[in-house]
Amino acid sequence: MSKIAIFDYGSGNIFNLKKSIESMGSEVHVISNFNSIQYYDGLFFPGVGNFDPAIKKLVDNKNSKKSFRDILTELPIFGICLGMELLFEKSEEGIENGLDMIEGDVIHLPTTMIVPHMGWNNILIEKQNDLLDGIDNNSWAYFAHSYMVRPKKTEIVYAKSDYGAKIPAIIAHHNLFGTQFHPEKSSVTGIKILQNFLRMCKK
Questions:
Q1: DSSP strands (E only) in the chain
Q2: Considering the chain, what percentage of its residues have pLDDT values greater than 90?
Q3: Is residue 81 annotated as a catalytic residue, yes or no?
Q4: How far lies 193's CA from each of 12, 64, 91, 111, in Å?
């Protein structure tokens, strides 16, 4: 059984994510610092909150003998929506620097779109990886966001969603994984993606 941590930024409801992961047989703890991170097999940055407060909460709680970057390169990390955006260098949502684990930034959705992008939309798979194992092209997922990531290296984008413009929907870079949609709200597609990530945490 894998032992999974969910980082709590101090805002939003992470109950659904916790229950979803627990239903798959994992032990789940909600954490607010990294003091015991070495005891976990995987880490989630949930899709709740706003960019600046979330970054401040993460950086203020890096109270560990190891550097923050060392902590975040030692185990699989799954960022959901905001959680994925935090992995980048900066965001138009705030003025704080991001975690800078992935080159690129986060930009506001084009004004030509209805913002926020909220509801069900399909994901267009561009290439396969372990996170997408068993996921069919054009599968449906639940989105709720006003911003989108803009990676400098396009090869880290594994799936997009068409919302008048192509939005990066799934990224993967070394031990970092992210979805712009919310897998815990995405029915069969989301369940399978979470299962795939938990399987990687056991390796």
A1: 3-7, 27-31, 42-45, 77-80, 90-91, 104-108, 117-125, 139-145, 147-151, 157-162, 166-173, 176-179
A2: 78
A3: yes
A4: 22, 31, 26, 30
Whether 29 sits among the annotated catalytic residues: the reply is no
Helix then strand count (H, E) for the chain reads 5, 12
**pLDDT tens digits, 74-105:** 799 999 999 999 999 999 999 999 999 999 99
Model pLDDT, residue 96:
94
Active site residue 182: yes
Q: Which CATH superfamily does the domain covering 3-201 fall into? A: Class I glutamine amidotransferase (GATase) domain (3.40.50.880)
**Active-site residue (options: 85, 117, 145, 182):** 182
Domain-wise residue ranges, the chain: 3-201
Only one residue has tokens 């970092």, namely 176
Which one of 81, 85, 117, 145 is the catalytic residue? 81
* Section 134-161 average pLDDT: 97
pTM for the full predicted model = 0.94
